[in-house]
Amino acid sequence: MGDTLNQLGRLFLQSIPTVVFVFFLLVILDWLFFRPLTQILRKREDATVGALARAREQSAATEDKAREYEAAFQAARQEVYRQREAERKAALHERETTLQKGREQSEVWRQGAQATLRKDVEAVKQDLQAACRSLAQEITALVLDTAPSSEGKRGA
């Protein structure tokens, strides 16, 4: 067993320079390769996460703007509808006013025509009455003039 321990001790002594070399290599690799690589990866991750965060913020801002634009568009559309409705009501009111004026004018014309017609009817009645009197007088005159002569002709 002493021989095994002796061989192990020699192996251990022979491996010390390798262990030191590996440790030294590990320190050098860490200082030259792993630290810069870790820093670059950390910066890359920060940039990626930051870019994603900025993209999310911009996306949220864009959605907010889209909602604002949609609300403004809806408000503008409602305003247009209100204006159209006001114009429609004004046009209807103007139409009703025009119709009412037309009705009043036609009523005035109707009343004027009726008055003229009444006057014409009265004038025609008076003309008819005058014509009837005249005709009655003529008939009476004819009947009276012909009556004695017809009696005389009968008796003859």
Tell me what the structure shows.
With 156 residues, this protein is mostly helical. It has one helix spanning 2-155. The termini are far apart.
Short description:
It contains 1 helix and no strands. The protein has 156 residues and is an all-alpha fold.
Multimerization status: single chain
The helix content is: over 70%
Question: What overall geometry do the principal axes of the alpha carbons give?
Answer: rod-shaped
Q: Could you give the order of the helices and strands? A: H
Number of H/I helices: 1
> Quick one: biggest sheet?
none
CA(first)-CA(last) distance: 206 Å
State the total count of DSSP E strands: 0
Mean pLDDT: 89
C-alpha Rg (nearest Å) = 64 Å
Map the helices and strands.
Blueprint: H1 2-155
Key traits:
rod-shaped; 156 residues; single chain
